[in-house]
């Protein structure tokens, strides 16, 4: 009797474990922190038209070394990406030495692809005022070409810096410089 | 005793495999019925302003931590990706429905294939409804 109960329990556990719910299944639930994050990633621009604002944004992304992958002006969207080294030079040198002298190979982060998507939208009921929201994410590969990180970038300084540059770019665009 | 052990072994090997296994035919034509899938992946909204719906979808996806991959105002589609150790890709389409409504359909996939848990889609439509100031209507 006890054995059949154990067997039954095992059956249930295995069935459940066989197709477990993935964390991404709740990835579309609005997090409590969404307002803070929105604030961080958003700026308001006044006395400007959307085309000028998007042109200024594209300019900043280019300044930062991004290539524009996609754009849809009608929806206020620019998608851009760049590839960059993800390795820490001092770590890389140490690993090289380790490889040469100790014949050990250790995978370290090598390359990353950063993607940005920038969306503008008109403020309800206000003429010539737009909200811009930008989000960054990155994928990191190591020296074995395995993906080691997939993440959304949420460092406030990053967004602060981006919008500082965008403000300048908007100013320059308005002056047609 | 021996038979019980054998059954146990078969269970251990067989059940997890059968839980998630997909052959090529199943991979292309999912086992869930299309009608069932459409019903939890779709909602209607009381508006005919396609551009506004698309912009609300983009704002919602950004709120949910997605990076927008592409959007097409003519086709009425938006695709986006969320990275958080996992990779979740979403496509949303907007089509007019009748004289006064728009139909939003969204489908999500991870690295193992389509997300078939209706709760995932429910979460999305709750967030979208908030962004649109309109309540999402279940499609009849």
Mind explaining what this structure looks like?
- The complex is a heterodimer of chains A (177) and B (140).
- Chain A has 177 residues and is of the alpha+beta class.
- Chain A has a single domain, classed as Kinase associated domain 1, KA1 (TATA-Binding Protein, 2-Layer Sandwich), CATH 3.30.310.
- Chain A has helices at residues 2-18, 34-41, 50-63, 89-102, 156-174; strands at 42-46, 67-72, 77-85, 109-122, 129-142, 147-153.
- In chain A, a hairpin with a 6-residue loop joins strand 4 and strand 5.
- In chain A, helix 3 crosses helix 5 (156-174).
- The radius of gyration of chain A is 24 Å and the shape is flat.
- Chain A starts with a helix and ends with a helix.
- Chain B is α+β, with helices and mostly antiparallel strands and 140 residues long.
- Helices cover 44% and strands 30% of the residues of chain B.
- Chain B is built from five helices and seven strands, in the order αααβαβββββαβ.
- Chain B has helices at 2-20, 24-28, 34-41, 50-63, 118-132; strands at 42-45, 67-72, 77-83, 87-97, 101-110, 113-114, 137-138.
- In chain B, strands 1, 2, 3, 4, 5, 6 and 7 form a seven-stranded antiparallel β-sheet that branches.
- In chain B, a hairpin with a 2-residue loop joins strand 5 and strand 6.
- In chain B, helix 4 crosses helix 5.
- The N and C termini of chain B lie far apart (54 Å).
- The model of chain B has no long low-confidence stretch (mean pLDDT 85).
- The chains are: A alpha+beta (177), B alpha+beta (140).
- At the A-B interface, helix 1, helix 2, strand 4, strand 5 and strand 6 of A face helix 1, helix 4, strand 2, strand 3 and strand 4 of B.
